Each structure stands twice: as C-alpha cells, then as structure tokens.
Amino acid sequence: MSELRVGLAGLGNVGRIHAEAYRHLEGARLVAVADANPAAFQALDPARGLATFTDVGRMLAEAKLDILCIATTVASHEALTLQAAAAGVQVLVEKPIALDPASARRMIEGCAKAGVRLFYGSTYRFLPAVMKARELVRAGLIGEVVLMREQSLGGKGPEHAKPMSEHHYPKGGPGGFGMGLVDHGIHLIDVFAWVTGARVTGGHGRGNRTGQPMRPEFLQLDYDNGAIAELVYDECTFPTELPNEGLFTLGDGWDVDGYVRAGGWIKHPGSIHFYGTKGALRVFHYANQLFHFTAEGPRLIPLEGAPPPDHFRAQMQSLVDDVRAGRPAATPGEAGLAALETLLLAYR
Q1: Interval 330-339: pLDDT, tens
Q2: Is the pTM of this model over 0.85?
Q3: Please, are residues 91 and 114 in contact by the beta-carbon 8 Å criterion?
Q4: Is it true that the peptide bond before 96 is cis, omega within 30 degrees of 0?
Q5: Please, which pLDDT band fits residue 242 given cuts at 50, 70 and 90?
Q6: Do 28 and 63 fall within a single domain?
Q7: Structural domain boundaries, residue 272
Q8: How far, in Å, CA of 182 to CA of 339, rounded?
C-alpha cells in the first residue's frame, strides 16, 4: 500500500502540536492543512511543502486525502466529519467528540454508512504512563480497583481566571476552563473505563456553562464492579501544593499554570490515582512518571516509549496502522459517545 495522505483541519494550539507530531509517521504523511485564518499558516515550516486551505471542503476536494484529523472547535465536528465521510476519507476527531450525544450518533452512523473509520482522539490512551498503568491494573498488580480520582485545583484567584470562550463552547452550554471538566476531565472519564474495563452505572456532579459565573465543578461516578471515581476542578482559586510536591517533568504537557516543556519544573503536576485492594498507582501522565505503592512504600515503574507530546503522533499512527491493516479503529467513535454521555451526568 502506498503512503497514506493525511490532512489536518484546525491550527490552534492543539492543531499545531498535531502538525509537528505528524513529521514522524510511518506509512503516512501530512500533506495539507486547513484553517479559516490564513495567519495560522505562518507557524508552519515552509520546507515541509504543505498545501494550505482556508476551507476544509476545498481541501477534501483537492488534496486527495486518505485521513482527515479534525482539531477544530467542537461545534464544527459533526459537519466536518460527515463531509469527510462523504468523500470516503477516514476521520480522527479530537475530544470532545461533539456537543451532544445525538450529534455524536449522527457522526458514527454517517461514517459507518460511508464505510470509513471514525477514530476518537483520546490522546491519553497513548501516554506511556497511562498505557503502563493499564497493563499493570489488568495484570492484577493492585488487586481490585475500588477508587479512582483526579483533580486540578489552582490559579491566581478569580480575577485572573479566564474560561474558554464562546468560540470553543457555545454560550449557555457545557464549558469552563481548559483544565476543567469539559475540556480536560473528559480524558479522565475515558481513561478510567479504559484502564479498568469497568462500565459507568451512574453518577452526579456540577459543571460550568459558558457565559455563566465559574464555580468549582466535580463529577462522581459509580461503576459496575463497585468502584467509584471522583473528578474535581477549579482554576479560580489558589494552589495548596508545597514546593517539595512539584517535580521535573519528563514530557510536555498542561497544568493550571499552562503548557510546560519537558525538563521544566512543574509546580502542580497533574496525576491520576488508582486505589486497589493490593496497592495503588499514581500516574503522572504528562510528567511521564508512574509510581506503585504498597505497604512497603513507593517504587518507580520504568516506562517505554517516547514521552509527551509524542502521544499525538502515536494516536495517528494507530489509525494509520488500522487503515493499512484493514482493521476497525482501535478507539472508535463509540468511545467518544460514551465519554460524552458520562460527562453530561454533571449537567442533569
């Protein structure tokens, strides 16, 4: 099979990371990018020779794509996905998959009818620390998982907090901060189920809405194996971590202070906690470190694979490999729908 041709829609902060990561794909090559703002193309390396478009439809018509990565705002996901499907192009769509479950279902059905794969961009599944945690949990290292949690609390007070705009999430609908429930927590919703294999049976919480006053938000979940999970977020307050609780990050990533490059000191390192009947795991997903805790104390678990932001390349490589092998998408649209439906429990 010849090299697959990849197109990228959206050159915002995350879109630019996708574009850079795609330099290193095997069996595929980024050939075209689209963004409504022509100024976005100035950040691209001219030596790559990428075709540029201000309209995704035109890119689909002219660039002869095999795969389209959609990194545009969520409100555009459905229309662009269905456009790509109609053109016979495989789709990778960033999180959240859509604004509401009905839209996500139309995307799934449209791709199925067109005979193309809809790959949900759950990048956390491709982080080395998360992948290793799943392997260890599934092998029974910490026994039966009974509790999972993650939180992102901090900032410099309400007057410095800037929630995501109506451009990202429509006014009156679910929204909030970049490290909040909608834009960040949806990763954890997916990861909790993926790591443990457990299914959500219920939950409740409180989430922020675009254009309304921002408050602390949370989501508590129940699972069919008896486990519970808790997510807590607030960027309008102040961090309580002490200096010795930070660390040097071994990968690029985000926290309440913004984007931190590998090798930098991260004062509030994001981490995921899995508590079991025989031990516990603490997963520093962006800092690329994993610790195992037992009665004897903690130990560092060695990790394989390149640190973040390589996980953006890894998820596209997974789709490329699925296409070339004729397999269904490893992380299908249904995973995005399940995460969205769980997220919306906080808005009932």
Answers
A1: 999 999 999 9
A2: yes
A3: no
A4: yes
A5: confident
A6: yes
A7: 128-300
A8: 10
Q: Which of 71, 77, 105, 112 is nearest to 328 (CA)?
A: 112
What gap in Å lies between CA 130 and CA 123, rounded to an integer? 10
Contacts of residue 205, defined as CB under 8 A and 6 or more positions apart, other chains included, come to: 181, 217, 218, 219, 220, 231, 345, 346
Listed in order, strand segments (DSSP E) in 194-329 are 200-206, 217-223, 228-234, 247-248, 253-255, 258-260, 265-266, 272-276, 280-284, 289-294, 297-300
Tell whether 339 is covered by a domain: no
Does 266 map to a domain? yes
Cβ neighbours around 241 below 10 Å, total = 12
Total domains present in the chain: 2
- Express each pLDDT in 112-140 by its tens digit: 999 999 999 999 999 999 999 999 999 99
Q: How far from each other are the two terminal CA atoms of the chain, in whole angstroms?
A: 48
> How high is the pLDDT of residue 257?
74
Residues 139 and 92 in one domain: no
Same domain, 207 and 287: yes
- Check whether residue 234 and residue 321 sit in a common domain: no
Q: Is 145 found in the same domain as 285?
A: yes
345 in a domain, yes or no?
A: no
